[in-house]
């Protein structure tokens, strides 16, 4: 029996060349003293494989049509065996993948692993970052509940405001002028065929480059990268001190990846997938979207930008960011790799990190988008104990004209604009009129919309709130 198995293996190995081609790769020498911080890349890869497996499993039951998508997800969540856990793994796996891609990128930046000869490793990595974010964005819509759909509507509106090409891009993204069945098929195609195909391709290329150029040695202050001598120096280092990748360096990757995957599954079992909100209703623009956490920094960024510079910034911001990311290895491809000797580079990465985290925190706290679900303010809740008819009319208009979508009075209303509970203390009648007629940053001007009488009623109501 043993001999028979050996024969089979010999046959396979002879015809395929496994031990000639694969074995040298997994036992190829790598620099000694690998660090724990070098594990994020492989952990990302394992998360991606987990996403592929759970994604394929989900696709067995998911129906990508606007009529059935919501029901099929409901079926997966509530009836299918382990369906909720499966969705949970796919959700937490996506979150983990985004975090790990970020950490991997930060590590390679901090250790300047993008310098000669690994520029292309970095560039293919930037592509993989973009693909990963796009997967998160498209996956959110496939949920086809009001949350997922309206988050995409808002994103498409933002895209549509980009000068010159915005409308075209938005139409390309959505497969039409509005979100509908064709958008769902299109996003399904992006999420399940097109982008994963690119990810597989780029991951293969990325890994090939890791083998070709070798894993970067942990940097040391004062040891410069010189493109003329680096390769021979590196080969020499491997010859003298190299250790086989498997098992000397790879055990760390295996432990960390296993831990992360167990953590993802545990989270999925404990919490399940995020609950589906109501089915989307194309006739109703009345929800405030609540995008997945990894999309929130983008939403917060656009919400915080002053409207005047916004449309230019919306074109230039992402464009410059992507150009900058791609050009990092060309801006500096030799010299110091140690973070201790690159204070400005470290300062930059800390700034970016703080910026993104602040956007996330701001975005999670603020409801910057109007709250269309607000209930009318009851008359018992206004400040004037004995409201006359102008004030009562003002209260109704404040709701009917949509002011309350953005402004809160006594806990009723949205938070996109300032709280007006005590605005009577702050602003005079004249000032109130000016503010409402002219509008302001993120406040529409109501000059042409309100009649003089309406305006007077609203103002006398607001002025009584002190
Ligand atoms: C789309 C959201 C939105 C809507 C709708 C809206 N506002 Fe505002 N409003 C804002 C924002 C944002 C500001 C802050 C403007 C600024 O800082 O320049 C503001 C400012 C104000 C102010 C000045 C507050 C202060 O403390 O300085 C008043 C008064 C006001 N709005 C009244 C109204 C009234 C009345 C309506 C309805 C007719 C209305 N708003 C509709 C978003 C909105």
| Radius of gyration (Å) | 28 Å
Mean pLDDT: 88
The CATH class label of the largest domain is Mainly Alpha
Q: Kindly name the structural category.
A: mainly alpha
The helix content is 55-70%
What's the helix count?
19
**Which fold does the CATH topology of the largest domain refer to?**
Cytochrome Bc1 Complex, Chain C
Strand order, biggest sheet? 1-2
How far is the N terminus from the C terminus? Answer: 91 Å
Give the CATH H-level superfamily of the largest domain: Cytochrome Bc1 Complex, Chain C
Overall strand count: 2
**Architecture (CATH level 2) name of the largest domain:** Up-down Bundle
Task: Give the strand content.
Answer: under 5%
Shape: elongated
Number of domains: 2
| Biggest pleated-sheet summary | 2 strands, antiparallel
> Which residues form runs of ≥5 with pLDDT under 50?
283-287
List the ions, cofactors and other small molecules found in this model: heme C
Could you name the key traits of this structure?
2 domains; mainly alpha; Cytochrome Bc1 Complex, Chain D, domain 2; 466 residues; two-stranded antiparallel sheet; Cytochrome Bc1 Complex, Chain C; binds heme C
Provide a compact summary of the structure.
The chain has 466 residues and is mostly helical.
């Amino acid at each position: 029996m043993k001999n028979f198995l050996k024969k089979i293996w010999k046959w396979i190995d002879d015809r395929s060349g496994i031990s000639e081609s694969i074995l040298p790769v997994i036992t190829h020498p790598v620099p000694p003293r690998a660090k724990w911080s070098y594990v994020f890349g492989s952990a990302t890869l394992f998360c991606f494989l987990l996403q592929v497996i759970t994604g394929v499993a989900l696709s067995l039951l998911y129906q990508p049509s606007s009529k059935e998508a919501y029901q099929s997800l409901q079926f997966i969540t509530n009836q299918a065996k382990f369906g909720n856990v499966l969705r949970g793994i796919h959700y937490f796996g996506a979150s983990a993948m985004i975090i790990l891609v970020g950490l991997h990128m930060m590590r390679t930046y901090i250790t300047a692993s993008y310098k000669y000869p690994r520029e292309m490793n970095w560039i293919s990595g930037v592509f993989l970052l973009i693909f990963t974010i796009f997967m998160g964005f498209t996956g959110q819509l496939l949920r086809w509940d009001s949350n997922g759909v309206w988050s995409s509507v808002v994103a498409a509106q933002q895209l549509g405001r980009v000068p010159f090409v915005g409308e075209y891009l938005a139409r390309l993204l959505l497969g039409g002028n509005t979100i509908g069945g064709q958008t769902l098929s299109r996003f399904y195609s992006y999420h399940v065929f097109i982008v994963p195909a690119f990810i597989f391709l780029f991951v293969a290329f990325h890994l090939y480059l890791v083998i070709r150029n070798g894993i970067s040695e942990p940097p040391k202050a004062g040891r410069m990268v010189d493109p003329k001598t680096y390769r021979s120096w590196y080969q020499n280092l491997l010859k003298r001190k190299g250790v086989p990748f498997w098992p000397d360096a790879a055990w760390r990757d295996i432990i960390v990846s296993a831990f992360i995957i167990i953590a993802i599954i545990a989270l999925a079992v404990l919490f399940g997938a995020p609950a589906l909100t109501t089915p989307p209703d194309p006739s109703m623009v009345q929800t405030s979207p609540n995008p997945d956490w990894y999309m929130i920094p983008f939403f917060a960024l656009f919400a915080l930008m002053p409207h005047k510079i916004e449309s230019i910034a919306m074109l230039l911001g992402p464009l410059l960011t992507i150009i900058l990311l791609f050009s990092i290895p060309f801006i500096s491809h030799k010299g110091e790799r140690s973070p201790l000797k690159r204070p400005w580079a470290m300062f930059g990465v800390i700034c970016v990190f703080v910026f993104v985290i602040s956007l996330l925190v701001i975005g999670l706290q603020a409801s910057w988008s109007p709250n269309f679900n607000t209930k009318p303010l009851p008359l018992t809740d206004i400040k004037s104990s004995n409201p006359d008819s102008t004030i009562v009319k003002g209260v109704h208009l404040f709701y009917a004209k949509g002011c309350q979508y953005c402004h809160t009075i006594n806990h009723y209303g949205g938070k996109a604009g300032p709280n007006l509970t005590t605005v009577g203390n702050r602003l005079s009648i004249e000032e109130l009129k000016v503010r409402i007629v002219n509008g302001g940053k993120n406040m529409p001007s109501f000059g042409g919309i309100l009649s003089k009488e309406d305006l007077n009623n609203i103002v006398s109501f607001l002025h009584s709130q002190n």
